[in-house]
Structure prediction request, 437 residues.
Amino acid sequence: MHVLGDSHDAEGVRTHLAECAECRAQVIEIERLLAATSELEVPEPDAGFEARIWERQQRHLPQTSQATLDEPQLATVIPFWTLRRMAGVGALAAMLLVAFMVGLYSAPPGTEIVPEGSAPGGGDRILFVAVGDHLESARMVLVELVNAEDGESVDISAQQQRAQTLLANNRLYRQTARLHGQAAVADVLGDLERVLLEVARTSGEVPGEELDWLRERIASGDLLFKVSVIEGQTRRAATADVGGETL
Amino acid sequence: MNENLPEIIARAQAGEEEAFRMLVEQHSRSVFNVAYRIVGNPADAEEAVQETFLKVFKKLDSFEERARFTTWLYRVAANSAMDVARKRQRHATREAVLEGDDGQLLPFPTGAPGPEREAQGIQVSDRVSAALGRLTPGERAAFTLRHLQGMSIKEIGEALDMQSNAVKNAIFRAVQKMRRELAPFASEMS
Prediction:
């Protein structure tokens, strides 16, 4: 540690070294070792290194930005009820979704789940339908992208416009789920939001590689399947609250 | 370019993407340098660079102007490189278990001399690389940050989430192991 400058008693060590040839030889040996280590060459990254790093960073920026800014701001700056008043029906639907998902994740297998306090109201049913519709629309965007015809350049302008309109509600649902500790739901909605955001940010006409990349994002983590599961459960909740009466 | 660094950081903290891009492009090579010395191969070092800037973006708000940006950045880089090295080590250990190996793994992927190169007479730097490769990720990171980046024990402890005594022990063990490994070649290092 003395050689690296971390000795407790540097002066004492120096005095000892002046008198002890054996320790002096050891210090010289370690100094040589350190010098040899300093001279180790690090390979120079190729010319496109910075651009490559930035390109990958850019892909993560939106999701990182949301994780950094949204939850803390909403949790600490805007009281939930203010948020809810601001958001109106969308937030209420999100609350119901979260309440529903609490049941979904905690009920024994095979139990038909109806969130406590939400069963009787026809208004609740409408809100479940709204959430279900949102998830269905988002799922359709994903399905269309997955099944789009390959080509050098692919027109996804219809999906891009729908993704833009879906983003605001999706973000609201995700934030509400997160605020209420529903990490599993928030994570799925977060994954969905990242893909919607990427689609919304395109120019509408994308190169084939970009479409492939979007497809990879959709395929990773079984996003389509997870969205379908939540959508299906929401639909069932919408019909179950009036004893199975269909809408 | 560095005279504008505080301004660039402030703009990045305010959420300006272009400023963050400048930070990434200006510092990614030096971060690669730190990471490489810990993980030991270019691919893992590049992964550590990616992880570093993702963390930097998330934590940029917590960076205080009075601190030195590069010191803070290298701490994040060291931490990310350690994570990558540990992940690689866990993966290698799993593979070794499957293959019935003895678990003595973690070769430093560059420069480790095989029998043929040994016979041909390899460079001292290759031997040093191989010796570094036999350190644990923690030992390698602590040693690298102290000796090559000049960080204090306290800073290394913060970067690697270790107590000061653990940092000192890791550095001590690293030096001892390397001395043992390189003892046969001591005369070549003079």
Q: What stands out?
A: Confidence is low (pLDDT under 50) at residues 63-89, 102-121, 241-247 of chain A. Chain A touches chain B at residues 1, 4, 6, 29-30, 32-43, 45, 49-54, 56-58, 60-61, 64-65, 67-68 (CB under 8 Å). Chain A has ten helices and two strands. The longest strand of chain A covers residues 153-155.
